[in-house]
Structure formats: C-alpha cells, structure tokens
Amino acid sequence: MSLRISDVTKRFGPLTALDKVSLEIGRGEFVCFLGPSGCGKTTLLRVIAGLEEADSGRVDLDGRDLIDLPAQARNFGVVFQSYSLFPNMSAARNIAYGLECRRRPKAEIAARVDEMLDLVGLRDHANKLPAQLSGGQQQRIALARALAPDPQMLLLDEPLSALDAKVREDLRLEIRALQQRLGITTIMVTHDQEEALTMADRIVVMRAGRIEQVGSGRDLYERPASRFVAEFIGRLNVLPLNGAAPNLTLPLPAGAGRPGAVGIRPEAVRLHAEGTQGANHVPVQVAQVVFLGNLTQLVLDAGPDWPPFVAETQGAGARAAAPGAALVAELPAEALQVLEWR
Amino acid sequence: MAVIAEDRAPRARLRANRHAPVLIGTLLVGVPLVVFVLWPLAAILLRSFATPEGLGLDNYLSVMGTPRFRRILWNSLDVTLVSTVIAVGAAYVFAYGVQRSLMPGKALYRFLVLVPLFAPSLVQAQGLVLLFGRNGLINRSFGTSIDIYGYWGIVLAMVLYVLPYAFLILSTALAVADQRLYESARMLGAGPWRIFRTITLPATRYGLAAAIFVCFTLVITDFGNPMVIGANYNVLATEIYNQVIGQANFERGTVIGMVLLVPAAIAAIWEKYLSRRQYALISDQSKPLEIRRHPVRDWAFSAFCGFVCLAILAVVAVVVYASFVHLWPYRMTFSLRHYRFDVQNGIQPLWNSIYISLMAAAVGVVVVTAASYVIEKLKSPATRWLYFLSILPAAVPGMVLGLGYVLAFNNPANPIYMIYGTLLIIALANVYYYHAQGFLIASTSLKQVSGSFDEASASLGGSRMQTLWKVTLPLIAPTLVGVAVFFFMRSMVTLSAVIFLITPQTQVAAVSVLLLEDRGATNQAAAFSVCIMATVLGVLLVVRGALWALGWKDVRLIR
What we know:
The complex is a heterodimer of chains A (about 350) and B (about 550). With about 350 residues, chain A is an alpha+beta fold.
C-alpha cells in the first residue's frame, strides 16, 4: 500500500495551485502537508481523494493509476474541516452511510456502526443529530464515518482547525493513537506547525504549489532547506549582515560568498551579564519581557541596524531581567544559519 | 499495441460514464425549456415581422406610427412609474416598521399585507369599483360623485396589487443588519436620521432596486386591473388583449407584445444583476440587530401600517361582502345565491383552476428542482445557457408568453398540439411563466446544502443518485414544499399567462372573475374571487398543518 504522486500539476485559471508535485507515501505512514494558506496543500489532498482532477501527472496506488477512478471508487476515508456530517441523519446513520452505499447486509452495518462508535467513545450519542453534538464530538463521528467502510487510506483536511484549543490538543493525540492502532496510511493537511510536529511521521512543507522540503519534524527544525522552512517551522530571528551591523563569525565552507542575512532560533541565543566579551557577543538592551510559564521570552534591542530579536530562556537570570536592563547576547556560530547571500 | 489498447478501452468507458449523466441531465432540462420558453418567444418574434409579402417591418411601422399607440405607450409608462414609486415607498416604510420597530400589531400586519397574494390579480380593481365606482358603497351612501375609473383607479389598484411583492423583498433586505455598525455609529454621535441615511439605506439599496424593478414589471404587464377599472384609459397590456381577442389581429398584438417585452426585460435583467450583490453585505461575524422600545416611533409605524392594511383589507372585504348580497347595489340583503354559480360552466372554472394549480405545483417542483440540480451539479459548457433559459421567463410578460404558446402550438402539425386546449397546457404555461422564481428558490437552497456534503458522500462511496436521494433531496425537501405552494398560489390567481390559452371547457376561475365583471355580473364575479381566496388560504392552512405535524418549522410558504 504505497501512494506515488508524480509530476501532478493543477491550475485554477491563472493560478498554479500545484506545480509538478512528486511525492511517495509508504504503508502505515502519517504524513502532514504543511504550509500557509494558498500553498496547494488542500488541492493536493483533494487530487489524491479524487475530488479534484489534476491537469497533468499521475497518482498511483500500489502501481495502479488512479486518474480515472472517481472519488466514489477510491475507498479513501476523508474528514473535512467543516465535519460535513449529514445534518438530517443521526450519528449512527452518518457512520452507516458508506456501508449503505456499498449495499452491505443490515446486520453487518449495525455491528460495524457499534464498533466505530466504541472506537471513538461515543456509544451513548448514537441517536443524536449532528446539531446536538459538540464540535469535538462531531469531528469524532466524522472520523468514525470515514473509517467505517475500512478505507485504504485516511485523508484529513484541516480536521482540527474549527475546534477550541483544548479539544484540539486532546484530539491530536487521539487521532494519532487511533492511526497507530489501526496502522492506516494517513495524510493530514494543516497550517499549524505544532499540529504537524505532534502528529506526523513525515512533514511535507509546501509553498506556492511546490514542495519545499520533506522530512521528520526534527529534520525540518534542525536542518531547514530554505529560509521559508526555517521561518515556518518554529520561530526564527532573521538578522541582516550588511552595513554597520554587528560582526559575526560564521563557520563557512571555503569559497562561499558573503552572507547577507542569518537566522537563529530564540532558544539558541545565550545571555550573559553586561560587559562579557567573546566571539559573536553582542551588547543588547531588554525591550520587553514576556513570561510564558515554563519559559521566558526576552525581546532584545541591539541598536538601529538589527530588528529587535527574541531570546527564549528558562534560566533564573532571565527571570530577573527587566525592560531596560543591559545584557550581552551570544549568538553561537554553530547555531547560525545563512539565509541570504550577498 | 495490444497492451495499450486494453489499457485505453476501460479508461474511455470510465470517462464516458462520467459524461453520460451530464449529457442526459442537460437534455432532460434543456429540451423542455427550449420547447416551452424559447420556441413560443421565437414564434411571437417571427409573427411580429410577418407580412403578406414575407418578413418585414410593416407591422411595427403601422402600429408605432399611430398617435393612439404613442398615447398608450405613454399611459403605460406613466401609470407604471407612479404606481411603482408609491408602492415601493409605502412598502419600505411598512417593511421598516415590521423589521426595525417594536410596533404593536406587528404579527397581524405582517400577515394582512400579504393578503393580495391569495386573491385573483384583479381583485383590487374589483374592490375599488365596489367601493368608489358609480354604484359603489361610498358614492351611494354619501351622495358623492367620485370617479374612480381611469388613471387614478389604475394607480390605486396597482399600488395595492404590488405592495406585498415589494414588502417581501424589502422585508428580507431589512431583516439582516449588523448591530456593530449601528453601535459604532451611535458611539460616534450620529443621530437617527444620519444613521438611516448612512447605514440603513445603503445596506438595503440592492433590495430597494430589486423591489422597484419587480414592481415595475408587475405593473406594466398586468392587464386585469386596467381592464376592470381603466375605462377608456388604455395601457399596453390591455391593448394586446384588445387587438388579439377583440379584433383577432395577431400581428398587431405581437408587435405590442414585443414592445412590452423590452421594458420588462430591462427591468428583469437589472433586478437579477443587483440581487446577486445583496448577499455580500453581511459577514459571518455580524451581530443581529437589537431593536429598542421607542413608543413614538412604534406607534407611528403602527398607525401607518394599520392604514395600509385597512386599505388592503377594505378592498378584499367589500368583494366578500358583495358576494353575499342579493343584487349589488339595489338589494343589499344577505343571499347565498351567487354561490350557486348558475352561470355558464357553473363552478367548473374553479375546479379547473384547482386542477391546473395542483398540476403546476407537482410539475413545477420537478422541473425547477431538476433545472437547479443540473445547473448546480452537472456543470458543462451548456450550463450558462441552461441558466439563461431558466431565468429568462422573469423577463417575459405573462401575456406575451401565453400568446407565444398560441402561435407556436395551436397547429395540428405540432406535437404539442396533442395537449393544446387541455388543462395541462395551461398548467405548463404557469410552470414556465413562474420558472425563474421557482428555480431561484430551489437553487439557492441547493447551493446551501451543496459542496461539502456532496464531497463527503462521494468520498464514502456514494454514487450521484445515492447522494441525491439520501442527502440532497431530504435536506432541501422543506424548501421544495415552499416551491410547490408558490406554484399553486400563483397558478390560482394569475390571469395574464393563461388568458389566451383558455377554451370554454378549460376556463379558469380568475378569468371567470374578469369575464363576469366585464358583463356586469358583479356579485358572481365577487363570489368567484372569494372562492379563489378561500381555496388558496385553505391550502396554505392544510400545508402549514401538515408541516407542523411533521415537525418542520421555519418553512417559508409565502413568496
């Protein structure tokens, strides 16, 4: 059970939603399509689901071309952002729908519906209409409905973005646990990097109809292939290196040009007392202190040539820092990523 | 080679399978629209150019060259503009009172203003004649000599006739409003008049324009009211009738029909254009308006709306009254003798009307639902043409469409001739005359339930047909009941689309009213009007009761 997407292109009028996208997804994998709105991630999911027809390229499932298979015949379970539960049917009848369309025997349907209701823990809500369920419950029923016909693959289109923060966090773990228990190949579209990081085996970062980088969350965070990925996954300070900007030493390969801008993660910035000397040590002033519970964010001002940048720390020293305090920020050479060349 | 051939064949078949429903649906919807809308219009267009020497402009030149025609054209525009301005103005105030005040009697007024929709479209003129005519209640009781026949009679009748239509549109436009805008304006120190001018009026401008165009079309194409109360004041609609029925001059009739088509079409096109823009004004975050108590304002609106309802009611009430007196105005004693219907055909026209309206309701629901389904869900290059044909009837005056049916189908060589002269052709004329409105109601509802439900169903393995039967139709069923009621009501009361299609055997009740009134049989005409109103009201009550028993609330029945 492997899905291969090769050179898929899709245009909507003048807009190219997908530009020769190629990707392979293996059996039992949980893959997230991550990117800002308009990057093509939902279009790609819809092409895979058969809800949208690609202009060119192929989608193969275990070597079989899907292009002429309509959505009805693909046997993929889809969960939509807006739940899309049929409002005129009870939770149980929603779950039964896919099986009814396949004309399965009544007894089999009833048994499967019970099984699914148990799976998502909503046995008591079988006869409620969607309008009588909470958002989280509706999304669980939508998940049960998608899984009931025993699909080859599960496709989730921003399934959590309409939910409250707390419910969202619970459901993330729940969906991930369910996916691992069933071993079902799953693709989820999201614009929320935290969601992608907590749930996916592999993340596909997309931008403007192209795949920017594919890798595990750790890969993307530690070895971003581009400034876009670096800025999109986690938080990144971008510091220009022109004019009178503070001098930084970088471990550059021989023959490399002159860097124009570097990036550094907030947690990589080290803070020292005023007057500390050393390589890549920059005197700064604390502009703002943001207490976030387990850590503290300091917004630092290093003069007119850099934009204010952020340091994150759990150290006791930072807790004492007050706006206006003078400190020295160390930007370790190994933590700096070159984002632009001059 | 063999491998490729094997690979290609199922692909081609799959594609054909996907295109087949689109083709079949397009034909099922498109062919009847061409036959029952486009063909009659083509027939009337062709006939208007037909001269003994082949096609030419002779008919147009001979009609338009006369001073009589220019006077009639001017009369029509005069009456139409004045009636439209008065009706829309009054309807705006009325709708404002209903939606934006806490006036006493609101629920009652909201119902009473719609009463003209239940009555044959000439009941206003009928009632005004009974009130203010030579033998009217007022002139006889007070010895006055008010002359209602002519210009002002037509204007008054038209205002009362189209007011509910304008009210329905404006009431919808005024129903939605964003509380946050009003709060911001008040915080910034704006007074009520400034708030109205800068917020309310701009927010309802499309509704206002739509109401103006709808009323304009209704007035300029109505002929029942001017027939009854117009006396020597001729308008385009009555002139078509005079030419076709009075003088059997089809050529002249068609030319005037074409002339009538132009302003009606312009108004309809503008209305459709503007109604698309109405919706973008309210966003998801809008807060519904809170209306505060304001005794002076509330009582002022109550007084105005009460006055309007009184006028509407007086006209209807006097018709009911006249139907129960022995001989208006000479023997005003109670009598049921007019309900014996000992006139030609007896009560048959009422039954005809009921049969026709039931057929129109049943056929109409199927036709407009199929049209909206095919147009919304089975997209193809033909979609825009189907859409155009679907809303085209909104631009066509009923008399023009009816005349087109006569010219197109009253010919033994035509396959439709089989049903010519039957109740069915009249029902079909009503279905296609009201096609645009029915179609728009159905397709709005379909759009609301479409998209994501379709995709959910498809991804679960549901075929098009399974999606339609299990999901789409159950979800739009309440609206479809409303569509059926719409076709029933309009078919019961309409005059213009059917006037040229009736035969002595297939006469309908609304036409009976006109013919009896014309013959001076005032009381019997009134009795027929009362029967029509009672039927429509009775059906509304039955349907409402059935919906209530089914647990379907909030179904809009009156449109």
